[in-house]
Amino acid sequence: MGRYPLLPAGQELTWAALMCAICFGELPALPDGAASPELRSFVSACLQKDHRKRASVAELLAHPFVAGRDVASARHALREVIAQRV
């Protein structure tokens, strides 16, 4: 079974523990080599706690990880993944 990435392994999941982890804990990071630099940058832009530093929707859509992608093939791939899990 999985676990919440913001809580240490074995810590009881409570609303208060999760809120403290989100507000005061370190941001989760993708393991080195597990993702492209573009994806790492995109995730970092999404997870900024300070809303003034967080990327806007327009900035995220213009991000190199998203911009120029073939939307139709991505949508098809996403549908396949969802169908396999349902």
UniProtKB/TrEMBL annotation:
Taking the record's annotation, the residue ranges forming a coiled coil are: none
- Which molecular function GO terms apply here? protein serine/threonine kinase activity
Please indicate which superkingdom the organism of origin belongs to: Eukaryota
- InterPro entries the UniProt entry points to: Kinase-like_dom_sf (IPR011009), Ser_Thr_kinase (IPR053235)
* Gene Ontology annotations for the cellular component aspect, listed alphabetically: cytoplasm
Quote the protein name from its UniProt record. Answer: Protein kinase domain-containing protein
The species this protein belongs to is Triticum urartu (Red wild einkorn)
